[in-house]
Every structure is written in structure tokens, then in C-alpha cells.
Write a structure and sequence with these properties.
Layout (H helix, E strand, L loop, with lengths): L2 H18 L6 E5 L4 H12 L3 E6 L2 H12 L5 E5 L5 H15 L4 E4 L21 H29 L2 E6 L2 H4 L6 H25 L3 E8 L8 H4 L8 H8 L13 H8 L10 E4 L10
Helix pairs in contact: 2-10, 4-5, 5-7
Length: 287
């Protein structure tokens, strides 16, 4: 065999073992796993060797995502689950344990926003719809608290587990308009730190809780806010790009490597942090 070829083959083999197989044998559950970010993380975790369960309310959408990922020979399944319902969430835990025997990673990806919880340029605080503000807070905060409580139980029994929450740039520096979303994501940051300390102090260092704070990605939920129908940027989209040193929006798949790093057993001394993945947005003062 050509030595140069053999050396390249071995390099590729060990690179795959180190990078792509680091989740081999682990069981990963992703709430909101049929969405833009959730499905990208599901694919990334499965490519790294994990058995992935997508948890979401919309069964048809979950089926479509799972079918696409299974067509790539990835070990992905779905379970219908409403993260705001404690009973169905606990039932989802039971189903995962029945199918896979354990839970190694929970990614709390369910979340979102509603128009009534925003303040548009022609509106004021007095136009804020309290019922929708409550729904946004429930979805982002309770939708993180309830799955954390449910999936932490088997992690406590195993004495090991990793929980990763999804924060936002709007939690670090509140943005105009999305007042409900910003407030709820700031609460997720606080909950992340609180649970990191709580679980360590009560159940030992084997259970870690961290979060990622994505910058601006173009997804189904915010596409109309950032881009016009012809593909050009809206005023808000232009403002965001002007404040992002990389001068572009992020891609969902660019979140995967950071999540893999946080899940890695070698990251055992990392807990209670929120990692920005934002193209430099949080580092830029605007000057």
C-alpha cells in the first residue's frame, strides 16, 4: 500500500473516531427536535454516533424529519411530547428508557415567540398582550423546566448526564420588539446556572447543565422579520448584520460542534455556562 495513502487513511480514521464518534453509544433527547435548530442538532448528534430521539408535538413534522435522517443511515426516532405538559413529558422519558435503557443528553430546544408578545415600532408597552406574553414565557421557560425535571431523574439514577438549554443573544442584551422572548430567554440563562449548582450539590458532579446562545439564524419563525420575499434584507436584518462582525447570519449546523464539546465526557469540569455562538455579535460595541 502507498505509504502516503495509508497515512492519509489512518489520519481520516482517527479524525472520525475523535470527532465524529465521540457520542457513540450515547442516548440524546432533543425537545423541539423537528424545528430548524433541533433537526440540525439531531443530525449532528446522530452523525457523531448518538441514538437520537426527537421530542415534539407535531407528529407529521417529526415523521418527516426522522425519515430524512434515517435515509442517511442515522439512528433517529421520534416521540410525541408536549413540553408544557408534565404527564406527557414524563411518559416520553419512560418511552426513551424502554427503547434505549438510559438518557445521556437532554437538549431543551423547544421554544418560540408570538406576535402579541412583541412591541412593534408603531406600538408601545400598552399594546403588549399579556396572555401571549405568558404563553411565550411558558414555552421558553416552563418548556425548559418541565423536561429538565423529567429527564434529570434517570440521570440522577445513572449518576451521569448532560443537559443543554437553548438561550439567545436577546437574553444577554435585550432587543427591541421581542420583549417577551428576551425576558423568557434571560430566565433560561438564570435557570441554567441555578440547575448546574443544584444538581451538583445534591447529586454529585456527574450531571452538568449548560446552555448555548445562538446568534441570528434564518429560520421559519423569523424569516419574514429578517428577509424580504425577494431575498434582500429587511431594515432589521440589515441592522443585525451591521452589528455582527462576521457580516452574515449563522447556520444551524454551526451550533453542532459546540454542543458536541459540551456533551463530551472530557468537558467534565464545565457546567453552569452560556456559550455565545454569534459571529462576534456579543463582543461588538457598535463602535
Amino acid at each position: 500500500m502507498n505509504l502516503e495513502f495509508a497515512d492519509g487513511f489512518l489520519h481520516l480514521f482517527f479524525y472520525r473516531k475523535i470527532i465524529f464518534d465521540k457520542m457513540n453509544g450515547k442516548v440524546v433527547c432533543i425537545t423541539g427536535g423537528n424545528g430548524t435548530i433541533g433537526s440540525a442538532l439531531a443530525e449532528g448528534m446522530a452523525k457523531a454516533g448518538a441514538k437520537v430521539f426527537i421530542l415534539a408535538r407535531n407528529e407529521e413534522k417529526s415523521k418527516a424529519v426522522v425519515a430524512e435522517l434515517q435515509s442517511k443511515n442515522l439512528d433517529v426516532d421520534y416521540i410525541v411530547c408536549d413540553v408544557l405538559d408534565q404527564e406527557t413529558t414524563e411518559a416520553a422519558v419512560d418511552q426513551v428508557l424502554e427503547k434505549a435503557g438510559r438518557v445521556d443528553v437532554l437538549i431543551n430546544g423547544a421554544g418560540g415567540n408570538m406576535s402579541g408578545a412583541t412591541i412593534m415600532p408603531n406600538q408601545t408597552i400598552f399594546d403588549l398582550e399579556i396572555d401571549q406574553f405568558k404563553k411565550v414565557n411558558d414555552l421558553n421557560l416552563l418548556g425548559t423546566v418541565i423536561p429538565t425535571k423529567a429527564f434529570a431523574r434517570p440521570m440522577v439514577d445513572q449518576k451521569q448526564g448532560c443537559i443543554i438549554n437553548i438561550s439567545s443573544m436577546s437574553a444577554i442584551s435585550p432587543m427591541t420588539r421581542v420583549v417577551g422572548y428576551s425576558a423568557s430567554k434571560a430566565a433560561v440563562d438564570n435557570f441554567t446556572k441555578s440547575m448546574a449548582v443544584e444538581l451538583i450539590s445534591k447529586y454529585g458532579e456527574g450531571i452538568r447543565v449548560n446552555a448555548i446562545a445562538p446568534g441570528f439564524l434564518v429560520a421559519d419563525q423569523n424569516r419574514a422579520l429578517l428577509m424580504n420575499e425577494d431575498g434582500s434584507l429587511t431594515d432589521r436584518g440589515n441592522t443585525i448584520i451591521s452589528q455582527t462582525p462576521m457580516r452574515r447570519f449563522g447556520k444551524p449546523e454551526e451550533l453542532v460542534s459546540t454542543v458536541l464539546w459540551l456533551c463530551d465526557d472530557k468537558s467534565s469540569f464545565i457546567t453552569g455556562i452560556i456559550v455565545p455562538i454569534d459571529g462576534g455579535f456579543s463582543a461588538f460595541s457598535g463602535v
